[in-house]
């Protein structure tokens, strides 16, 4: 069953349960152009969480999945407010663990760095040390959606991702990328202080520099995801099992 949290601006954020319903809580946040169903539910993360006595709560980011798709309102502060709204609605008896992938991992890094007591431990997958949206031009991307002009590499990548899943609206996702790009990811600004496991596919060219983040983490470690690239890492049994083990041990 899908339930909704209400963001401060009235946007509804969809939440999906998986794993052990009586277990210790874990918030899961997917990446750009994905959603909770494709990133976590269909890839059997619920089984891995349940085996470790963990209850998963997977949110659909605004503009994705079953969450609302406003015409504007996709800045980084909006996404941080959404996480706050989800945690407030859940009213959990203990600080949850959290798993984020790609854009979801950047969001959790930012959130945990400025709200140090919100989570007990983090697993961050597919997290590049820089910001992939740094060179994103939203006008070029919109032209590419209309088959006009020649997009750059990042614009072409975003447009391709925006059209992968039929349940998503490419115009909305391009707008989202444009608004997110206004606040570039600066990992040095406020690194998470809680135990943090970084995991990246050993064939991931888009996050090949993940290990450069380790010196910023007071309690961090890194493990590769064998045989996976940026797009298929969430399907890895190694990824989901190690994430569940790490979060269960951090209780």
TrEMBL record:
Classification via SUPFAM superfamilies: alpha/beta-Hydrolases
Entry-linked Pfam families: Abhydrolase_1
Record's keyword terms, sorted: Hydrolase
InterPro entries reported for this sequence: AB_hydrolase_1, AB_hydrolase_fold, AB_hydrolase_sf
Superkingdom of origin: Bacteria
Molecular function per GO: hydrolase activity
Residue spans crossing the bilayer: none
Presence of keyword Hydrolase: yes
GO cellular component terms, A-Z: membrane
Domain annotation AB hydrolase-1: ranges: 25-127
Protein name per Swiss-Prot or TrEMBL: Alpha-beta hydrolase superfamily lysophospholipase
């Amino acid at each position: 069953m899908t339930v909704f949290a209400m963001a401060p601006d009235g946007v509804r954020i969809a939440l999906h349960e998986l794993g052990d319903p009586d277990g210790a809580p874990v918030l899961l946040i997917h990446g750009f152009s994905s959603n909770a169903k494709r990133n976590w539910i269909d890839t059997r993360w619920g089984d891995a969480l349940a085996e470790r006595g963990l209850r998963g709560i997977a949110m659909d980011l605004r503009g994705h999945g079953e969450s609302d798709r406003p015409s504007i309102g996709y800045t980084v502060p909006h996404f941080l407010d959404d996480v706050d709204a989800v945690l407030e609605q859940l009213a959990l008896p203990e600080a949850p663990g959290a798993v984020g992938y790609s854009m979801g991992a950047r969001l959790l890094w930012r959130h945990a760095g400025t709200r140090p007591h919100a989570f007990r431990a983090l697993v961050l997958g597919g997290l590049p040390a820089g910001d992939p949206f740094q060179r994103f031009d939203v006008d070029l991307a919109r032209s590419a959606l209309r088959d006009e002009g020649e997009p750059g590499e990042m614009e072409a990548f975003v447009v391709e991702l925006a059209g992968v899943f039929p349940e998503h609206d490419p115009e909305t996702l391009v707008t989202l990328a444009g608004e997110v790009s206004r606040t570039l990811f600066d990992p040095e600004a406020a690194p998470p202080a809680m135990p943090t496991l970084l995991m990246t596919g050993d064939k991931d060219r888009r996050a090949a520099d993940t290990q450069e983040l380790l010196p910023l983490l007071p309690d961090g470690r890194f493990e590769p995801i064998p045989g996976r690239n940026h797009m298929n890492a969430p399907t890895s049994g190694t990824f989901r099992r190690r994430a569940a083990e790490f979060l269960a041990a951090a209780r």
